[in-house]
Amino acid sequence: MLNLLKSRKAQFYIISVVGIITILYSIGKSLTSYSIIDTSEVPLRDDFFVFNNIVEKTIATLNASKDCEELKLYLEEFREAVIKAFTPKFRINYEYKIISCTATSATVSFNITLYSIYSEIGTTFTRTVNW
User: Fold this and answer.
1) Multiple choice CATH, 46-130, 3.30.160, 2.60.40, 3.40.1350, 3.30.1300
2) Residue ranges covered by each domain of the chain
3) CA-based diameter of the chain, in Å?
4) CB–CB of 45/121 below 8 Å?
5) Which tens digits make up the pLDDT trace of 40-52?
6) The three-state (H, E, C) secondary structure of the chain, written as one string
7) Phi and psi of 6, rounded to 5°?
8) 62 near 71, Cβ under 8 Å?
């Protein structure tokens, strides 16, 4: 009789431990899903990459020109290419103004803004290029 009571106590102890562990695991799992920050959406948005690429290639276009006529031609071609390439996904405001242009240098002011569903990114800068 004594052995049978010890056996039932052991079974109840094992069932209780399994039940408590299951309850704690369930509570932990339900709380974990609320505390994790979803960062997977940020890399899927390429707004910043596209904007930085446009600014970088704008500066490369400035450096590629050898005189005022080439500068005007290259900037206008680049502007049209950027707007045409990214129009389905973005709206781009690409404005430039040639402030001064001499035989040895040129100063150009830019106002570039990229609009998307998620963000609006813009910059204004002035560059001087020497040739």
Assistant:
1) 3.30.1300
2) 2-36, 46-130
3) 111
4) no
5) 666 567 888 999 9
6) CHHHHHHHHHHHHHHHHHHHHHHHHHHHHHHHHHHCCCCCHHHHCCHHHHHHHHHHHHHHHHHHCCCHHHHHHHHHHHHHHHHHHHCCCCEEEEEEEEEEECCCEEEEEEEEEEECCCCEEEEEEEEEEEC
7) -65, -35
8) yes
The number of residues in the chain equals: 131
pTM above 0.85, yes or no: no
Q: What is the pLDDT of residues 80-99, one digit of tens each?
A: 999 999 988 899 999 999 99
Alpha carbon distance 52, 42 (integer Å): 16
Q: What are the structure tokens assigned to 1, written together?
A: 């009789």
CB 101 within 8 A of CB 73: no
